[in-house]
Automatic annotation (TrEMBL):
InterPro entries: DUF3786. Residues 19-191 form the DUF3786 domain. It comes from Desulfosporosinus orientis (strain ATCC 19365 / DSM 765 / NCIMB 8382 / VKM B-1628 / Singapore I) (Desulfotomaculum orientis). This is DUF3786 domain-containing protein.
Amino acid sequence: MNYSAAHELALKKFRACSLEEMASCSGYTLKNNALQLEFLGQSYLLNYPSGSFEPLQPSARELPVPTQILILHYVTNLSDIQEVGQLISYKELPGGSIYIKPFTGRAIDPLVRIFGSDPDSLLKVASHLGGYSNGLGDVGITYKVFSRVPLSLILWRADDEFPASGNILFDASASAILPTEDFAVLASTVVFGFKGIKAALDQVVSLR
């Protein structure tokens, strides 16, 4: 998919916003002419007005364009919407029921495939990033991808009758913060980001 048009639109909106307002609404810190942010354990500067992402750690990877667009969409939402504490599924987001099958294929199925045989490793990865157990399913975690956007990942272990299964839920405030399509990108990005962190943590353990 060609993301160049969407990226340009996101950059245009970013440049039209006040840096101070974006910092206040997003929860990110102002650092000179940039927003300092963390995404999946890696730190970046989002420079203003260029919209370029500058890694702050040698280990930080360059952010893919869809992830850059996602972050730009988040920081340019200059609202004071707060969490309501009620969880909803993707199909409960506006238009989400139409795209639930692709969402399942790109986010929920990989979650089960990667963590279903070892659900406890999901909690280990989430804890490493500041997430926490939410008491849902056999193993459920909540991780704040952005300060106003918590993501709840839930797994049920396989048993004699059923294979492992999972779900991904959002706070009911979600649709006021990002478009529905962004939550598909967000969930998929988090699941595969967790996969990479799981591999890194497993490697550390194997070297001990």
